[in-house]
Amino acid sequence: MHDKPDKAVVALIEDFLTARATRKPSPHTQAAYRRDLSTVAALAAELATPPLPLDDLRIGALSPRLLRAAFARFATDRAAASVGRAWSTWNGFFSFLVAEQVVTGNPMPGVGRPRAPLPEPKPLRGEDTPERLLASAARGEGRQRDPWPERDVAVLALALCAGLRLSELLALRVGSLAGRPGERRLEVSGKGGRPRMMPVEPDLDAVLADYLDSRRRRFGSRTVRPDSPLLVDRHGEPLRRGGLQYLVESCYRRAGIGDRVPRGARLHALRHTFATRLAEDGAGAAEIMRLLGHASLASSQNYIEVTAGQQREAVRANRTNRALVGLVRGQPGRPTGRVG
Predict the structure, then answer these.
(1) Nearest to 97 by CA among 109, 88, 105
(2) Is residue 332 one of the residues assigned to a domain?
(3) For the Core-binding (CB) domain, which residue ranges apply (predicted)?
(4) Are 136 and 168 part of one and the same domain?
(5) Which residues touch 291 (CB under 8 Å, ≥6 apart)?
(6) For 40-94, how does the pLDDT look when each residue is reduced to its tens digit (9 = 90+)?
(7) CA distance 337 to 340
């Protein structure tokens, strides 16, 4: 420890969250940081000898042994992915404290970290579902007080044809679309602040141009400046998280495909559909990694493995394939030996 070994953990958590706020994390992410830090800290205070109120817990008390006990208690009723996320948050917290010279080292390598399985991709079900969804949005079907099909199609197309996350969609600016016609690209601010460039094919380019033209007609050219948010609501205000989720849900409902959307992957199902179709069309893990902005090649490889497994299941379900079973296993009533 350096000069502040006895500073209160709750105060240091606030310092860390303030520093993280400069990176512009989403409110959801910032709340998750606070929850993981506060929950584990409270367990550590409870398990300390003697037990302490959380406000009295000092950073010098957080030994690897106490942190292991706190994380063991934390893990009793939580999934491995939740425990892993909390471990990463605490690892970042201690890395911050080391950089600030509050502590001399990071104890988290001495705390076991579960290896959570990669989540299984959850694309839209049904071969024609993406096309059906886009066609419905383009027609402006359903009872809408103020239909705006050009905007709805643009949102769906950015997720289905560029694989953007919800946070990435909300961060787009009009000026994010750059380059000459035929060479368009989209500058995306990815997860963890990692930027990437997405190629924009002519059809997607036309959809975005149609949307921006409709926006000029609705609100005037001054609302389509390069620094203006790309996606706005029906009042011309920037779309927010809840509004974007509601928009996509209403598109599902109007297209009548609610039963084809995997549970727990509403908007993210569009991104998963983009990645799955890349894998089905022969894209390699490295290409998928670059296009989706994955930090790990394993996440991208997961789409290829799942696609290969689905293809094998489809072949196995083929009735002609099943008919071969009796021919080679000598089932009663079936010919045995060589077939010729």
Answers:
(1) 105
(2) no
(3) 7-98
(4) yes
(5) 163, 196, 198, 275, 278, 283
(6) 999 999 999 999 999 999 999 999 999 999 999 999 988 888 899 999 999 999 9
(7) 9
Q: How far apart are alpha carbons 69 and 59 in whole angstroms?
A: 16
By C-alpha distance, which of 133, 289, 162 is closest to 230? 162
Backbone φ, ψ for residue 186 (5° rounding): -115, 125
- Same domain? For 50 and 175 the reply is no
Range of the domain at 263: 130-300
pLDDT in tens, 12-39: 999 999 999 888 777 888 999 999 999 9
Asked if residue 168 lies in contact with residue 261, where contact means CB atoms within 8 angstroms, the answer is no
Provide mean pLDDT across the span 217-223: 92
CB atoms within 10 A of CB 275: 24
Sheet holding 177-178, edge to edge: 177-178, 185-189, 195-199
* CA 340 to chain CA centroid, nearest Å: 53
CA 176 to chain CA centroid, nearest Å = 20
State yes or no: pLDDT of 312 exceeds 80.
no
Residues 146 and 77 in one domain: no
The owner of tokens 């070994």 is 5
What is the pLDDT, as a whole number, of residue 314? Answer: 45
Distance from C-alpha of 231 to C-alpha of 302, rounded to nearest angstrom = 31
Q: What is the pLDDT of residues 122-174, one digit of tens each?
A: 889 998 999 999 999 999 766 778 899 999 999 999 999 888 989 999 999 99
The length of the chain, given as a count of residues: 340
Instruction: List active site positions.
Output: 165, 191, 268, 271, 294, 303
Distance, in Å, from the CA atom of 215 to the CA atom of 209, rounded to the nearest integer, reads 10
Q: Which residue, among 85, 98, 69, 73, has the nearest Cα to 35 in the 3D structure?
A: 85
> Rounded to an integer, what is the distance from CA 58 to the centroid of its chain?
35
Residue 319 located in a structural domain: no
Q: Which secondary structure element, helix H or strand E, spans residue 91, and what is its range?
A: helix 80-99
Q: Does the residue 21 lie in any domain?
A: yes
**SS3 assignment, position 169:** helix
